[in-house]
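Example 3.2
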Amino acid sequence: MNKEMLLTTILSGALFFSTAHAAPFGGEKEVAYAKSLWTVLTETGYAGSGQIYGTPYTGQAPHGAILDTLNGVVTVKGNTGAVIVKRNYGGAGVSKEAVANNPDKYLKAVTVMFKRKGYDAQTKDWFWVKYKPDGSLHTNPKGMMLAGKVTKGMPKGCIACHTAAPGGDFVFNSDRIK
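Structure, written as tokens:
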């Protein structure tokens, strides 16, 4: 390998490394916090076996054909805040009735917004996470785990979409959570 190719390889690697670690989501701290949040969600009935279900309703991309949304208040690592849990259902034969009768069969993802005081004033302190049905984290096409300030500063994704929510609170279904 000549010096020019070596330098190019080193610079490319450094750029990738710095970009990956500068991202506002998917880092070790965000992933650890997402795991703590999942534990609380399962303990409080928002996720896992024995979870509370809402009424299935027709959804839209990117969440799913059928959705079920709950909101409340939980405490994670000493921080008490509002939580919005949206279950995303899809697959062959999915319908409101099918989900109501057999939700586990159609569950594809659990998307959560947790109001984490002092976390990020620009996004009203919301911590964003997308879980698989088993509580592990979904990743984006680049392999970054979807936890933290997901897609902050990017033209598409969680924060970019929710910026358009009425009331300036990043929440579409109500203006109750300030």
